[in-house]
What we know:
The complex is a heterotrimer of chains A (499), B (448) and C (130).
Chain A: H1 42-46, H2 63-74, H3 97-103, H4 121-138, E1 142-144, H5 150-169, E2 175-179, H6 185-192, E3 196-200, H7 210-216, E4 221-227, H8 239-248, E5 252-256, E6 276-278, E7 299-301, E8 313-317, E9 320-324, H9 341-354, H10 358-376, E10 392-395, H11 397-400, H12 406-415, E11 422-423, E12 432-435, H13 443-462, H14 464-468, H15 481-486
Parallel strand pairs in A: 2-3, 2-4, 4-5, 5-6
Antiparallel strand pairs in A: 1-7, 6-7, 8-9, 10-12, 11-12
Chain B: H1 8-18, H2 48-59, E1 67-68, H3 81-87, H4 90-93, H5 105-122, E2 126-127, H6 134-149, E3 153-157, H7 162-172, E4 178-182, H8 192-198, E5 203-209, H9 220-229, E6 233-238, E7 255-259, E8 275-279, E9 292-296, E10 302-306, H10 313-316, H11 329-366, E11 372-373, E12 382-386, H12 391-400, E13 403-404, E14 407-408, E15 419-423, H13 430-445
Parallel strand pairs in B: 1-13, 3-4, 3-5, 5-6, 6-7
Antiparallel strand pairs in B: 2-8, 7-8, 9-10, 11-12, 12-15, 14-15
Chain C: E1 7-8, E2 13-18, E3 21-26, H1 28-34, E4 39-41, E5 48-49, E6 54-59, E7 64-68, E8 73-78, H2 81-84, H3 88-91, E9 100-104, H4 116-129
Amino acid sequence: MTDRIKKAGRHVSQNEGLIFEQSAPGKRGVEFPPLDVPAIDARTALGTAYARESVAGFPEVSEIEVMRHFTRLSTWNYAIDLGMYPLGSCTMKYNPRVNEFVARLEGIATEHPYQPQELSQGCLKILKLLLDCLAEITGMDTGTLEPAAGAQGELTGLLLIRAYLEDTQGGPRKKVLIPDSAHGTNPATAVIAGYEVENVPSDEHGQIDIARLKEIVTGDVAAMMVTNPSTLGVFEQNIAEAAEVLHAHGALLYMDGANMNALAGVARPGDFGVDVMHLNLHKTFSTPHGGGGPGAGPVMVKKILEPYLPVPVLDEKDGHLALDHHKRKSIGRVRAFGGNFGVLVRALAYTLAYGPGIRQATEDAVLNANYIRKKLEDVYDMPFNSPSMHEVVFSDARQKKNGVSTMDIAKRLIDYGFHPYTTAFPLIVPGAMMIEPTESESRQECDLFVEAMRAIAEEAATTPDLVKTAPHNTRVSRLDEVAAARKPVLRWKPKAHSS
Amino acid sequence: MRYLPKSTAERRDMLAAIGARSIESLFASIPEKFRLKEPLRLPAAMSEQEIIDYFRARAAENSGGYTSFLGAGVYNHLRSVVTDSLIQRGEFLTSYTPYQAEISQGTLQAIFEFQTLMCELTGMEVANASMWDGSTATTEAVLMAERLTGRHRVVVARSLHPEYRQVLDTYTRNLGVHIHEIGFTSSGQADIARLEAAIDKETAAVVVQSPNFFGVLEQIPHLAELAHAKGALLVVAITEGVSLGAVRPPAEADIVAMETQSFGLAPSYGGPYAGVIATRDKFVRQMPGRLAGETVDSNGRRGYVLTLATREQHIRREKATSNICTNQALCALAVTIHLCLLGKEGLKELAAQNLAKARFALDLLESIPGVRRAFSGPFFNEFAVQFPRSVKLVNRDLLREKIIGPLPLGSSYADLTKRALFCVTETTSRAEIERMAAAVREILSKPV
Amino acid sequence: MYPSDYRYTKEHEWIKVSGNTGTIGITDYAQHELGDVVFVELPAVGAKITTGDVFGTVESVKAVSEIYAPVSGEVIEANAALSGAPETVNSDPHGAAWLIKIKLANPAEVTSLMGAAAYQAFVSEKEASA
Lengths: 499, 448, 130
């Protein structure tokens, strides 16, 4: 069986305890230039009520120990740099290293958000150019780069809609419509924006049900949040019609741009009726995921929403760029200090690398997804048969008959040298297996993935236990999540910790 | 295109395997009228060298060659090469959120270490895996206090960072939360008498920052007593984490919301940084954000998983504790590495250097006729002074000397015109402090 | 399987009535669907619960199940043992893992709930269609 595993082999990985377990008094990993002003005692300077002796539980280790500790930990991770990451809806693509290089430049990384604007023209030009590029790619009029991540982009977008409705229609309205296939952040965000959530069921093709939409859009509806392509990887055919229905009732259309990787250079949300949308720069625009962030979630809008954009707003005055912190109708500030500038730098570096050729990336992403679909559709069930764009959703319906679930197949993929695909999402597909290869995968890598998935399908039929107990070749086997949740241990404590 | 690993022939073969006539046909599900016919009007594609040249040119238009005395929530501290090279390892940089624990143990164990370090620093019992930044962490802490108490009034000290207060306002405006702001006294600390009067049976939280926006330490034990007496929670925001190397942690607080930028993260014109929420064990179910927990695998081996996930949006959707999904993981990793390098002694020395430098700078400034400290309370590495004239005028002249002067407090506090907030850290040399003080003396000696 | 002296809801709660007091829990079917229970959240003593409203939650690692009040009443006791041993919900859902005891607001309400046989049939039908 193991000879079928072509991409991965065994290798020695180092064991490593917690950094705290290596601590010994007197060691340190950093030294400072000598103090060049008179030293002062903290107790004297602050008073005994405010002073602290030292941080009791801090480790004491040398530089080499820190280097080895974190290098060893790093080798326990899978990463895009090691291979394909077919996580549907997450768009795990190559993160170009030049982006890291430019974000760290002296004069970029070193700048303080409060320094005078005449000494910040370089930073402001970067922001301006990125905003212009994003407006062109999305077909929207303008936007804000402030939101720290997609979820904050969603909140910003809904607050803009709220402010617009209050300003032009005398009230914010009550409800936001959200399809049942949506990301969990959509409903969670709507509640924080002060809206009730009404779930909208998809039709039998997993698409927006226009007839149903016409029934439920009333004067109470502020907006509908749509992911397009949907989380099934399918373009919403009726998106423009949905926009018309909403607009006819004075409501707006919000687009979750999580799947913009299927559209960049090919179609623009601004052209098919979207009023406001967010982008996940850590997805489509290649800023590294970093084990869970940082990201950035710019929000792009049509002209009607411009007056309400969060401050500061980038303006041009006498040939110079400036940040305006005082806009009368602004929703305010969603994050201090303007946003994740370093992430924005990386996204611009990515955009400049492609230019108009970004269309080729989109085409390759869609090509890869359709190729994988074609090569797997005879062994895995496809709950929705609509044409796929950048991702394809299968289900475990056939394997389930042998007791093998999507999670088991995903875990077995690890043995074959791949990161699992997305399991159990979207919620409308029981046993979902959501695969997004992105444009970063070569034909060879796609073929290896296909071979692995086909081999696992066969194992699920012949040796289901092998799949159900996977992974078999990792440092740790399946971890006891139940014990972790029943008696949470969320920090290290020394043997005789008093507090 | 160098990022795309396919030849023309491979693309053709793959299309043939799919049975598609053209790449265009794969986009047929997009209605014809919405498919772009023209290339996007974007700058022409650039090579790696051209990208570097573009950003070098932008960098040259910024503040290179200037000495800065700005802090106010974003601090210049020493950063280490070790931290930066470690976080650029592809296995950290290009890995996803560690949902698949078997192949994410590196990230998970590092988060567990981060959570531990944050508890030790803040005196709290449990800390999360990070929030977007200090301002959103503070806001989330307030929303958490609301859920815990079932109350909807919040008493906020005006000495909390103005931008943090604005973010809090943006988030809470539509949620029926009433915010009551409390001023400060001549010490620069929150006005305890007014604060005590403002806390009532409907108060969910009292929110202060320490060191506060003026650099002054708040009286945390006393504030906690006042809040607890009425059943409210005390939320303490911390923007300058290095202070915790010399200053007592806010152990009496119920929730601590901290910005960790000071621990090895570049100012980077506003971000990315990493916020964190730390609290008591008993409140953990209402805490937003990811959490790593220790467990064992099927062979009894120690390992880590993301846990208590039922609090989060991907499971609880509209009933989640927060909408946060992507956080600041790589920044939190940098903070973890940086703090391990510093260790117990390093952090103590770092804090001591900041204390000493700030006092050295204040002494020099106070020796200038007409300049005096604006507040009397204890401070760490930031302090406010009062000038005999507009701070903006002083700063304009300092810029000619290639010095970025202090933050004018008047732009955020109408009652604090002519007051300037200085920040002095270990990165500011004695020579730079002396040059700045000499320049201020010179500027003030001349008529406006 | 399902005790004959209990009454059941379509949301898979059970109630056992003794005099004016009702003891409420979730059924074996519910615990099985949820998987390993890791946390139980219950109302405070003195809280009023109303028929059909959510009064607590039972959580597994990746799911949250809300518990609906089968009838109205006032909470007189919550099962404190469950916070330290949530796994009891899996091992003894109809016994030791009772969730709350209430003082019934209207004892007649109970008669509208399903008996054991009816609930067994309801569950069997669900299992067949799954």
